[in-house]
Design a protein that fits this description.
Elements (H helix, E strand, L loop, with lengths): L7 E2 L10 E2 L6 H9 L4 H7 L5 H16 L7 E5 L21 E5 L1
Antiparallel strand pairs: 1-2, 3-4
Helix pairs in contact: 1-3
C-alpha cells in the first residue's frame, strides 16, 4: 500500500494551511477537483510540471483517507410554535412551513 505522508504537507504559512503537494503551493483539493472534472494525469503533469504522477496519487490517497474519517450527523426535525429562547445578539434563522410554524433543529 502506498503512503502519501512524505508527499503531502500541511503548513499554516502555505495556502492558509490547506494540504498541498510538498514543496509546492498546489493544493490537494485542486488535484482532486481537476480529476473529478475529467482531467487526465498526463494533462495535470503538463499543466503543473513541478508535480509527479506519485504526487497526484498521494493527493488522491490523502483525500480518500480524509473522507473515510468524515462523520455525517443528521438532525431530527421538530416543529414548534415559537423559536427557542436566544441571546439578544443571537441571529438564528427559523424557517417557517406553509402553516407558519417554525422549525428548530435538535439532535
Amino acid at each position: 500500500m502506498k503512503s502519501y505522508h512524505n508527499r503531502i504537507d500541511i503548513n499554516p504559512d502555505i495556502m492558509l494551511g490547506k494540504p498541498v503537494v510538498k514543496g509546492t503551493r498546489i493544493p490537494v483539493e485542486l488535484i482532486v477537483r481537476k480529476m473529478g472534472e475529467g482531467a487526465l494525469i498526463e494533462a495535470l503533469l503538463d499543466d503543473y510540471p513541478n508535480i509527479t504522477k506519485e504526487d497526484i496519487q498521494a493527493a488522491l490517497l490523502y483525500a480518500a483517507d480524509n473522507l473515510a474519517n468524515v462523520v455525517d450527523i443528521y438532525l431530527e426535525k421538530k416543529m414548534t410554535d415559537q423559536p427557542q429562547q436566544t441571546k439578544p445578539n443571537d441571529h438564528r434563522y427559523y424557517p417557517e412551513d406553509k402553516n407558519g410554524k417554525k422549525f428548530i433543529w435538535i439532535s
